[in-house]
Amino acid sequence: MNDRNSDYVFLSYSHNADIKELLALFEALHYNIVYDDSISYGEKWDMNVRRYLKSEKCKGVIFLFGEDAVISHAIQREVDLTMLFRRKHFLLFLDNKDFAELRESLSGRMSGEEEETFDIIEDSFPEERIFVKMRDLSPAKLKQVFDEWGLRPEEDEQLVQVRYSSRLSGEKERLDSQQRGYYAFDKKALDLVTATFDRDDLCVLDLGCANGALTYSRFCEETRISKVIGVDCNAEDIEEAKSVVGAKDARFAFYTLDLESPDLIEELNAILRQNGVEKADIVFSALTLHHLKDPSLLLLKLYDVMSDEGKIVVRGSDDGGKLCYPRSELLRELMDRYGKIVSASDRSNGRKLYSQLYNAGYVDIKMLYSVVDTCGKDRREREWLYKVGLAFRLSRIDEMLACNPDNERLRAERDWFERTLTEFKNAFADRSFWYCNTSYIAIAGVK
Ligand SMILES: C[S@@+](CC[C@H](N)C(=O)[O-])C[C@H]1O[C@@H](n2cnc3c(N)ncnc32)[C@H](O)[C@@H]1O
């Protein structure tokens, strides 16, 4: 904001108008807006405004019209300069009143000079100009106008990313609660792959097993599986997995391992040997690939730890697989803005699974889908969908803010998310609101 060295849009407004909300919107969309907040009307003001409007960096002007602005000399001067320098412009009516409505509401209250100013301002704008009432303004509309003017959003200040950990606040409970919803889906995929083996001593590798609780619930009743090896880069989680799950069931073993390690295959083969197994029969991984910088590389490498009959089962999620109505656009915006903040994980991972497996050379790929929606669900179930699908994002942004405490833009985003998530929370409580989420499992074979 107010950076005159990069491309900008000039904001023309009366200082009596409250434009805080609008400025927050520009800020959130990362547009550079220049406005004369610190200079008062006078000679210096005139010189400065002339300079701002003449500059090649000025891509256009937004006029904010309300009762004060339409009778203001200063605004009239800005209108004149905009026309003189042929700047693109559009008009926004702050109190949702257009020129005719403003004239009516000011009637009998304007001096002769003010009436003349109003006339000059109104006459300056041909009717085909874009007039927007404040209530009709949307981020999409602004983006469209700024795109036409050639104004790009400013580059994001690089945020320090928080590496995903199931120890982030509330995350364990969320994963646990989420898994209850996924249990039947995972079982369907596991039944399909175990049915392809004619042995009963199968060995499973669970990549990204967190603290093992979900690994246990997923595999403990699989009688055809005799060994489950869980790996995760989070050492604390692995210690917990060993002491809780490993201690109660000898079929389960856990190891700290970074799936991005250059020596991954040697390390995994050593782990398999320690467990008396030559190769893994089933490689399972849920909601983990999207945390890796190069998931395709991992898929390529895994060949070397899988038996010839081996099967891979990957469950992913995708923010694009979330739909709702009403508020469809707001949900899209929420996902887009979240993706820009939390760029450490790929929020569009579900749609890529098929191609990633195909390109890595796997065969006989099958895609399974699990769709859950709010239809026919009671209030508690709807709240659960809100919690696992949307609400967790605010605590993730809070973690980011803790690592980027001086980032004002992130703070403004956090406020936007808080407001927007509250709106969604209320929407989920409303039985007329529909929300639907699709999850994805890809199954494939080695040969
Ligand atoms: C969203 S959790 C998924 C946990 C569990 N698989 C489930 O079904 O919900 C992602 C897990 O991947 C692990 N992870 C992320 N990056 C990893 C890496 N490079 N190496 C190993 N584990 C990783 C995290 O520590 C976390 O436990």
Task: Walk me through this protein's architecture.
By secondary structure, this protein is an alpha/beta fold. The chain folds into 2 domains: about 10-150, Toll/interleukin-1 receptor homology (TIR) domain (Rossmann fold), CATH 3.40.50; about 170-445, Rossmann fold (3-Layer(aba) Sandwich). About 45% of the residues lie in helices and about 20% in strands. It has 15 helices and 13 strands. It has helices at about 20-30, 45-55, 75-85, 100-105, 110-125, 140-150, 170-195, 215-220, 235-250, 265-275, 295-300, 330-340, 355-360, 380-405, 410-430; strands at about 10, 35, 60-65, 90-95, 130-135, 200-205, 225-230, 250-255, 280-285, 305-315, 320-325, 365-375, 435-445. The strands form 2 sheets. Strands 6, 7, 8, 9, 10, 11, 12 and 13 form an 8-stranded mixed sheet that branches. Helix 3 (about 75-85) links the parallel strand 3 (about 60-65) and strand 4. Helix 2 (about 45-55) packs parallel to helix 3 and helix 12 runs antiparallel to helix 15. The longest helix has 25 residues, at about 380-405. It is elongated and about 95 Å long. The mean pLDDT is about 90. S-adenosylmethionine binds near residues 165, 210, 234, 291 and 292. S-adenosylmethionine (SAM) binds near residues 165 and 232.
